[in-house]
Amino acid sequence: MTPNIISALGEIVSKKNILTDPVHLTAYSYDGTPVMSRMPEAVIFPENAEQISAVMRLANAERFAVVPRGSGTGLSGGSIPVENSVVMVLTKWNKILEIDRANLTAWVEPGVITEKLQTEVEKLGLFYPPDPGSGKICTLGGNVAENAGGLRGLKYGVTKNYVMGLEAILPNGEILRIGGKNVKDVAGYNLRDIMVGSEGTLAIFTKILLKLIPKPQKSITMTAYFDSITDSGKAVADIIAAHVTPTIMEFLDNTTINCVEDFIPTGLPRKSEAILIIEVDGKGAEVDEDAEKVFKALKKNGSTFVKVAGSAEEAALLKEARRMALSALARVRPTTILEDATVPRSELPVMIEKVKEAAKMFDVTIGDFGHAGDGNLHPTCLTDERDKQGIERAHRAFDFIFNEAIKLGGTITGEHGTGLAKRDFLENVAGNVGIDFMKKLKLSLDENNILNPGKIITSKPKCEGPLPGRREDIPEKPHGHTH
């Protein structure tokens, strides 16, 4: 990138909002994805939509890539810089613009921390259900870009179920406004759902309209212990078959249980092969009825003990223990590779066994946990990126896990996104026609392949000459970051 382009960027966003020193750039060369990084040419912090539009027009004229970024907690390489790129950081856009109690909505900027919105709306007796594990630090813009899930996804759905409208900057610099506070709106194509989960490849979000719901009145949280990991999976299937939809139904295997207990002791049973953390919520008697159905399913499937949280504080501690699973596992070895395979809920017991099989077959240590109620497992390999053979075995283990998930009617990612990390697996799920459709959609909006190129799919631009995002390889320089 030439000094003239850097200077032009500084004129657009002002010199105080651009970083070019390699020491500062390093912090933006990676995200939460292990063994992947690349240095950007510059990092910018635009202050308004007009500046973003101007940057995109410059990028198209000068043929450099723009990579949007929030807090950088993503786990599929979505915000990792590409060749000849500028990282656009939106964390300073952190205002809750409006909470509309009459219409149960909130307008927010993309840099608002997820937990901040949840805290503010709950003060008003309202509820924003999506709760990704990194909720204390991830941004709502990133949540929308990745269609983030979380512990409460089983009952309440994921981010896309709560996005009602967007203001966004398109790759050519135009400002797009879609959606609104109407409960019903079927005018034209559903552009909103195309944008949600687009991983920063189709637009840069500047304002987001989110749906809120009334806060649940009552909840019961419990932990069930199992001597058989397969029995825990069968219990999940039976709970769903009993027509109960828990708010939370989380799974931890023995490796993860012990890592969590070493990290934040909460009294989890170290000898159990698996535990389920389950919560039901709602109104009055229906919560007790659901809890009783859950107890019966747990007992039927060999649960050795069920402990009910005696207070809100104890329930919060149990859920925090689950949220800390990744951090706890990450303390064991220098490199932690967290993955995200999802299968139909009825196939969960089989998938759990396939993860165990992969660990044994390829001689790797895998801790397994995840959102058991929606079939979304997070097999996590504990390794060391300096051990090239160990990393190769880990990759082969995950190849096996993804392929087995697909055979069971599952998918390669339930909530982390495709990004760079899973791009090569996408065709196995979407097929040739699906990939071709995505490429046409991408290039119809971004003909010069400027915005976050190379993520999800690889697209050849229509015009000639060297352009960003043409490289087919994934950034190769390990950064040593452990997540």
List keywords for this structure.
Vanillyl-alcohol Oxidase, Chain A, domain 3, Uridine Diphospho-n-acetylenolpyruvylglucosamine Reductase, domain 2, 3 domains, alpha+beta, 7-stranded antiparallel sheet, globular, Uridine Diphospho-n-acetylenolpyruvylglucosamine Reductase, domain 3, 483 residues
Structure description:
With 483 residues, the chain is of the alpha+beta class. It folds into 3 domains: 153 residues, Uridine Diphospho-n-acetylenolpyruvylglucosamine Reductase, domain 2; 119 residues, Uridine Diphospho-n-acetylenolpyruvylglucosamine Reductase, domain 3 (2-Layer Sandwich); 190 residues, 3-Layer(aba) Sandwich (Vanillyl-alcohol Oxidase, Chain A, domain 3), CATH 3.40.462. The chain has 15 helices and 21 strands. The strands form 5 sheets. A 7-stranded antiparallel sheet has the order 15-12-14-13-19-20-17, sandwiched between helices. α8 packs across α10 and α13 runs antiparallel to α14. It is globular and about 70 Å long. The relative contact order is 0.13.
Summarize the structure.
With 483 residues, the chain is of the alpha+beta class. 34% of the residues lie in helices and 20% in strands.
